[in-house]
Fold:
Amino acid sequence: MARCLVTGATGYIGGRLVPELLAAGHEVRCMARSPERLRDLPWRERTEVVKADAADASQVLAALEDIDVAYYLIHTMGGSRHFAHQDRQAAEVFATAARLAGVRRIVYLGGLAPRERLPVMTTPRWVASLTQPIAVRDVLRYLTAWASVPGEINRAFDIGGPDVLTYADMMREYAAVAGLPSRVIIPVRALTPRLSSLWVGLVTPVPSRIARPLVESLRNNAVCAEHDIAAHVPDPDGGLISFRDAVRLALKKIKEADVATRWSSASTPDAPSDPLPTDPGWAGGSLYIDRRAIRVRASPESLWQVIESIGGDNGWYSLPTAWRLRGLLDRLVGGVGLRRGRRDPNRLRVGDAIDFWRVEDVIPGRLLRLRAEMRLPGLAWLELSVSRSDAGTVYRQRAIFHPHGLAGHLYWWAVSPFHGLIFGRMPLNVAAAAARREVRRPGRS
Ligand SMILES: NC(=O)c1ccc[n+]([C@@H]2O[C@H](COP(=O)([O-])OP(=O)(O)OC[C@H]3O[C@@H](n4cnc5c(N)ncnc54)[C@H](OP(=O)(O)O)[C@@H]3O)[C@@H](O)[C@H]2O)c1
Structure:
């Protein structure tokens, strides 16, 4: 058993690695700039969390105290124009602190360094560049195993999946697995990495400032030159996961609408490729999330009563005309509209219909998750929850949308201004309704 420090625990890889290390019997300390972002994670109580910024040598040194293996899973890519310089500086601070603290090993996950460079770029050459994608659960298998590998093995290893593909192949494979119509790929000479990244920023949730360095890196082939790691971490019986299976696994949970179940589930996720709360919105499938939270001057019980009775004749606590219009539009395109109302004005069960939603999960007193059954170019959920903090009762609300194709992305952007109004007002009105209910509660004035 090793004492491990996981940096970047709020990130995509770090957030998935923590439960894997715990399951393997290691002790885990997480380093985060904002520890509160880890508060609701199912594994939080089984880890120690320290607050530290990688650029602050004394904070990093404190975080590394008594640590055997430190996972360096930090990058600031796209954070600013000087991210490469900042990343290098933070890595140097960390390496120096680790040496001072007597850390046995640092595990760093990088990208495959190109062995060749294209002398001239004539077309958007990157769609023909070769790459060797690896499933995140295979990456996690290697990272987890590395906590137990003898300290004298100290070098870089190439890791990659079993398929070597062009990016064009990957797009076609993805479309096939996702059940999308087959894609025709037309090379456009004018599509430089800069223009490509602007396009990516427009039609996907990946911001173009993050897309830019990614697209830039696609110009080079990224293929493993060796598979020496197998001598220390043997390949699993069926071999590494193929690209097709990795996409299938990643899409499966979203297709089954299990995505949100995982986020609030109290159990440790069993499949590290499931979308997790720590994933950036754009990882593991495109997700747009509108988050709201407000402190409520009422007890959690009163707030829950308001949440549990939402919809139907009780309404949606914001812009009733806009909701009616949305219902009407839904009926015009063959959807159910708002006509279903509610089975019971105050109580809910999983499976109940509420207007154009379906109750997907109810944790009494804590959480209501609704899955949209209106006609949409994607999947949508509305999640309303109650939590207690030192400051009192807190109402949280998340509207989540998983777009299907370009139409889905365009839909989300088109309705965003309306969402701003509708979802912005809901928390205020729900909080006010809970406060009114509180006053009416027996024993209150
Ligand atoms: N994801 C991939 O497919 C992939 C592939 C190859 C290599 N990698 C490498 O794996 C590592 C992790 O990637 P990821 O996808 O998990 O990244 P990510 O989701 O963007 O997470 C980055 C993490 O870095 C933390 N961070 C940034 N600046 C920090 C600072 N100054 N001090 C402390 N923490 C800081 C962030 O914390 P905050 O929450 O505070 O911002 C976040 O937890 C990176 O080095 C990346 O290059 C990733």
The first strand starts at residue 3 and ends at 7. Residues 7-8, 10-14, 32-34, 37, 53-55, 73-76, 90, 109-111, 280 surround NAP (CB under 6 Å). The CA atoms of residues 138 and 236 lie 9 Å apart. The radius of gyration is 24 Å.
